[in-house]
Amino acid sequence: MLAPAGPVRSRGCVFKARTASLVFPGTPAVGRSRASTPARSDVGLGRQGTTAQVCTHYAVFVGVDLHRLSIHTMTTRPWSLAEAAQACARAGVGGVSPWVEHVEPIGVGEAARIIADFGLRVPAYVRGGFFVHSDAHERARAIERTRRLIDDARALGAESLVIVAGSQPGVALDDGRAMTCDALGVLVDHAAAAGLRLAVEPLHPMYAGDRSCVNTIAQARAICDRVGSPVLGVAVDVYHVWWDDRLEAQIEALGREGRLFGFHVCDFKPEPAHPLHDRGLMGEGCAPIREIRAMVERAGFDGMIEVEVFNRKWWATDQRTFLRAIIEAAHAHA
Which end of the chain is more exposed for a tag (fewer CB within 10 A), N or C? Predict the structure, then answer.
């Protein structure tokens, strides 16, 4: 059971809850009759008579209001976008952050229809960028791909497009940041015309060699300063920035500048089994997640809290069990 009746204590926090339960694809909603909710035969899941009932009797916890939670589709990687959206909606989760890998196989129009059908917010579309190349032709291709993703993000109803700068062995990190500035300078007007924000996501320094030359909030802010557009800001991912001894000051600065565009949570395991695919659920590692959430909220952030957990162990399990664990971890530790 997700949330027993009465107060629940976790690490000194008291959650006041009513009884709640999870509902997943292919099962009837708990607490509501089928007759009370119209059947949704157009969700594209190929299941005759399956309903898209949304469980509305969740309590608002002191930890995280489920309506403020968004699950990245790469978190529940084995699920299709339709399966993920249906499960999130039925569990009372308020949003989904689709990855390109889950949208492109079905087309952006179908993806937008699925998300709208379940009434989910889209705080972010993930991800554009990867501008760092020694070959100018490849840099141009990355810019054009991101331009197309801006259009797709708008079609999905996304509030932002996450940008990962990219990195390449042999290209100096400073040169990579300059390439990133140049590319974003080309793209911000297109994003502004689409009514979309671009959120640069700094990645942990262990990815500096081949994934991102932007590894701190300070570096991301410097890029924003250089480009000078109000649609360009930063996504703060706990996994990537928890270690920074300037973290609180940098988050405060993002708030003052109006550049705090996203907040992602998971946990950092000190000895991961895989450099990419062994992120921890909240509470499994050493990142001070709740403290960092307090920092971003003091800085004025009131957007969705996005769960981004890449974990091979969890991908090999029943994703319904995984979603249960995500929600419990979010309540207890985020």
Answer: N
Helix (H, G, I), strand (E, B) or coil at 322: helix
Residue 39 lies in a domain: no
- 27 within a domain of the structure (yes/no): no
Residue span of the structural domain in which 329 resides: 66-333
The Cα 34–Cα 227 span in angstroms is 53
CA–CA gap between residue 217 and residue 204 (Å, rounded):
10
Exposure string over 156-175, b if 16+ CB within 10 A, otherwise e: bebbbbbbbbbbbeebebee
pLDDT by 10s per residue, the chain, length 334: 333 333 333 333 333 333 333 444 443 332 333 233 333 333 333 332 333 333 333 333 346 799 999 999 999 999 999 999 999 999 999 999 999 999 999 999 999 999 999 999 999 999 999 999 999 999 999 999 999 999 999 999 999 999 999 999 999 999 999 999 999 999 999 999 999 999 999 999 999 999 999 999 999 999 999 999 999 999 999 999 999 999 999 999 999 999 999 999 999 999 999 989 999 999 999 999 999 999 999 999 999 999 999 999 999 999 999 999 999 999 999 9
Does 12 fall in a domain? no
Q: How many Å apart are CA 18 and CA 265, to the nearest integer?
A: 25
User: How far out from the chain centre does Cα 206 lie?
Assistant: 20
Asked if 92 contacts 56 with a C-beta cutoff of 8 angstroms, the reply is yes
For residue 121, the cross-strand partners are: 95
In a domain, 297, yes or no: yes
| CA–CA dist 177, 165 (Å, integer) | 8
CATH, residue 81: 3.20.20.150
Please tell me the total count of domains within the chain: 1
